TrEMBL record:
InterPro entries: T2SS_GspM (IPR007690). One of its GO terms (biological process) is protein secretion by the type II secretion system. One of its GO terms (cellular component) is type II protein secretion system complex. Pfam families: T2SSM (PF04612). The chain crosses the membrane at residues 21-43. It comes from the Bacteria. Keywords: Membrane, Transmembrane, Transmembrane helix. This is Type II secretion system protein M. Residues 144-163 are annotated as: Disordered.
Amino acid sequence: MNVTEQLRARWAALELRERRMVAIAVTLVALTLLWWIALAPALRTLTAAPAEHARLDAQLQQMATLQNRAKALQAQPRLNRDDALRALETSVRQSLGTNAQLVTASGDGAATVTLRATPDDLAQWLSQARGNAHAVPREAHLTRAAAAPPSAGSKDPQPPKVRWEGTLVMALPAAR
């Protein structure tokens, strides 16, 4: 006797009430499996879709912004090394003042900026150097300098500004 025949014989031996209970149990197990395998994952995906869509839209917007920036940088006229060096000197003088010194090296196409207690607007200056002089940092050796505490009579709630010391090696455009 094979397995199918044994199951049929057992089913026939069950009373009507027992058959109904087995049928209800099998139905409940089948419905539970249907829920776990087919319906619950689909409903989770459906409820998470708006948030995921918004996240992807924001990411797409950010990528489009970066693409526009890259295109704007590519569209800028190329500077020769001398013009870039002059623009970098001007930005160091105007933005960093006496707290920085620019030294150029003729061989490797780089300029070294030495910083002494430079205010915390260094990131703004780096952005300006990138835009105006097409100079990008190639090497940085920076440390936080001790900031002067606010004077005792000062009612200024602002914490002391961060100051930077060290050197930045800026890569300049290649000579043409």
